[in-house]
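Please annotate the following for my students:
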Amino acid sequence: MTKMDANRNIVATLQSIADVYRSQGQIHKFHAYRNAIETIRHEFTGKGIAIVSAEQLKGMKAIGKAMYEKIDEMLRTGALRQQAVVSSDPTNVALKLFTSVHGVGPVAARKLVDAGYRTLDDLRTDTMNLLPPAARVALQYHEESEIRIPYDEIEDHLEFIRAVLRTQVDARLIANVCGSHRRRADTSGDIDVLLTHPASHSTSDSPYEYLAAVVSGLKRPQPDAAATSLASSRSAVPSPTAPSSPYILASLAEGSSKYMGYCRLPYPPPSSSSSASVTEPGGGEGLPQRAITRRLDIRWVTADFYPCALLYFTGSDTFNVNMRLHALKMGYTLNEYRIAKLSRDGSPPSGVTPAGIASVSPDRGTVSRPSASPARMASPEGGGVGGYVVGATAAGGDEQSLEVTSERDVFRILGLPWTDPWDR
């Protein structure tokens, strides 16, 4: 046992109960557990502090009396009776399983359980036609998409996407992966891409349909550099089927600002590790393995919204909540689009005013990840797309402008020291 085993056990136990509450639609209880988990990760595990007594958590905002008693029980006995009870209930087991399928929420899951469904095979047959259309697509890739994605593999996906943007769409497009990956987690559940273009702006009269163009490019077979350059750089052997392999395999939802679907790198991985590849159905000796199918989300924002979007979609949830509360105390409103000064009556302002577009390419950053291979580079540090002012008109007509060209500007405006993504 290591000194951090207790931390991991507490987090895993609380997460399993949180998942049950989410599957039941008890969102308030779900968030209570998630807040406690984030507190433990940020205040203890992230700082290398082992929890040896529940007394260490006393007084923390996310740790109320009931949560304190649960953690104390786990530290004293090594387990939590509540987890054993909720985990053994057949209905809870089925609800948790069904809500793990994209497109199946708590209400739909309850209908499926009430109809007598208990397994994924029951869903696949679905004789009563109860499954939403998106869930039917998701079921095809469910088992693979549940496999955690290693950090380096997500970097492969990002390099591939950037190659497609560079060679087939517009070389000035900017793509970064947010979420736990940008916080340098060892693994992530899916690939969350944030996309922008330095010439786009929320007040422009001309629509920027870049997301549709990007998705279209990723759906096409990749016979050129996009499919082979990264494979060569990773010493992978190009597959004979690679030229006819699209990156995006299936779509769950397509809109003007967000895409959701499933993707697969169109070349075999450099190793046969089960965490990076699976054998093709019907494959045999001498045939290459293929990359695992992954969940992909791509979100498009205009360049003036990009710094705040990058900050928000990086997370963590607890960090975002705390930063927004601090912003309100300082007289600002902060969301995933912008930061602006509150008007004198405390109401949020309206209007975004452009202040020119930087003519230089944005800095993509070169912060290396210590545990990754030397060629790997982390997502941009304080990334932004320069040259915008978020305008706010205060009560009384006085215009107050806040220049936001990067995440760092948001920290500066709020009087906060810079926090690296991996410390959030």
In short: The longest strand covers residues 248-254.
